[in-house]
């Protein structure tokens, strides 16, 4: 089986929430089906749709034991080539959830008698006026979503044109000028983080937490979430220190800094940062000392801090006493954690060769990377934020 790599995109709605995921498979359909079957145990569960797009879209992809929340994405052209009969027969037999990538052959695909749950439109090849016309015309055939949306302006325009959501990473690159100072809530969380990081007296940390009741509530909610997987419920900060210790607690306090965001795209940014965090932590297993795993998690969680907090990365970090390898990676200055952050970011692109090269530098196979990425997505889904 040749290496099949997975990259991903989120589908974001007008409430700035990720309502679906889009996985792009880089490899042949037959190999992709075998790879996906091998990853069944880490497939993201729940009702949130997971679109699966394979460049070599044909009937061999249907050898995959398709989960209930998966939606197969096919271009109209797939139903018009020499293999179309086999593909149509298999789809009529298995009846999976389908998304039609609108193209010049879309009409022939619709005439084949298939039921499509979604219709996807390329925002780069259609004007806003064309999208609006298509959304109205095609509404009876499926829910409209937009692909290749590269800016916040384009995102808003596609929603106004009638799209339900847009697949894009535009929100990682805010266009507004960064603020000069942190807001009071963010500054307070940094004070608590610094106290924990320097192993301050427990009473001093508790006193700082009590200044913000919502902060204590959020911390306990995270620790007790399904993503953390504890066997008992943590009922107080003192209890958390007893069970976890300061080191693990530092990891979860780090998430609170991101939740203080006032950014319009905060929910999508949080989901992305948490996925990166868990992915980097998993990829570090066996490659760095176990004591470094929490730092890899924090590096991923903080990797979008500038977008989340609305300040430059330099300004966000200057008040924090972070280990040097974390700061170096976040500021683009290399170091131990930088290759892991680069690999996590490459999973959000569409360049198979760059992804394979980055994974190869760390000695990470496609199977291991794909497994870690799906596990990280499942982890992010289990968290409440």
From TrEMBL:
Pfam families from the UniProt entry: HDOD (PF08668)
Q: Which residues cross the membrane?
A: none
State the SUPFAM superfamilies in the record: HD-domain/PDEase-like
Q: Domain HDOD: where?
A: 182-368
Q: What is the name listed in the Swiss-Prot or TrEMBL entry for this protein?
A: EAL and modified HD-GYP domain-containing signal transduction protein
Organism the protein comes from: Rhodocyclus tenuis
């Amino acid at each position: 089986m040749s290496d099949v790599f997975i990259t991903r995109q989120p589908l974001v709605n007008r409430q700035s929430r990720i309502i679906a995921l889009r996985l792009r498979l880089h490899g042949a359909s037959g190999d992709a089906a075998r790879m996906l079957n091998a990853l069944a145990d880490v497939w993201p569960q729940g009702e949130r749709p997971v679109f699966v797009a394979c460049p070599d879209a044909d009937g061999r992809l249907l050898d995959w034991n398709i989960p209930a929340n998966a939606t197969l994405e096919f271009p109209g052209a797939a139903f018009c080539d020499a293999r179309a009969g086999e593909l149509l027969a298999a789809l009529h037999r298995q009846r999976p959830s389908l998304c039609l990538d609108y193209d010049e052959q879309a009409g022939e695909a619709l005439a084949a008698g298939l039921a499509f749950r979604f219709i996807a439109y390329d925002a780069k090849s259609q004007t806003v006026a064309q999208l609006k016309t298509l959304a109205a015309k095609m509404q009876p055939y499926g829910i409209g979503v937009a692909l290749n949306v590269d800016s916040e302006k384009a995102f808003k325009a596609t929603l106004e044109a009638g799209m339900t959501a847009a697949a894009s990473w535009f929100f990682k690159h805010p266009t507004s000028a960064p603020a000069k100072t942190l807001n009071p809530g963010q500054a307070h969380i940094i004070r608590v983080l610094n106290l924990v990081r320097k192993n301050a007296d427990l009473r001093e940390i508790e006193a700082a937490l009590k200044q913000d009741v919502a902060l204590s509530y959020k911390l306990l909610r995270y620790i007790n979430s399904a993503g953390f997987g504890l066997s008992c419920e943590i009922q107080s900060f003192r209890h958390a220190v007893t069970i976890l210790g300061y080191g693990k607690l530092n990891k979860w306090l780090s998430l609170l800094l991101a939740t203080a965001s006032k950014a319009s795209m905060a929910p999508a940014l949080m989901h992305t940062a948490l996925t990166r965090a868990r992915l980097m932590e998993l990829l570090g297993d066996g490659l760095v000392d176990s004591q470094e795993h929490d730092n890899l998690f924090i590096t991923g969680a903080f990797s979008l801090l500038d977008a989340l907090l609305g300040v430059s990365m330099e300004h966000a970090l200057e008040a924090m006493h972070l280990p040097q390898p974390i700061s170096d990676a976040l500021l683009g200055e290399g170091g131990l954690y930088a290759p892991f952050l680069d690999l996590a970011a490459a999973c959000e692109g569409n360049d198979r060769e760059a992804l394979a090269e980055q994974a190869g530098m760390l000695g990470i196979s496609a199977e291991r990377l794909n497994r870690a990425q799906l596990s990280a997505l499942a982890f992010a889904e289990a968290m409440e934020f």
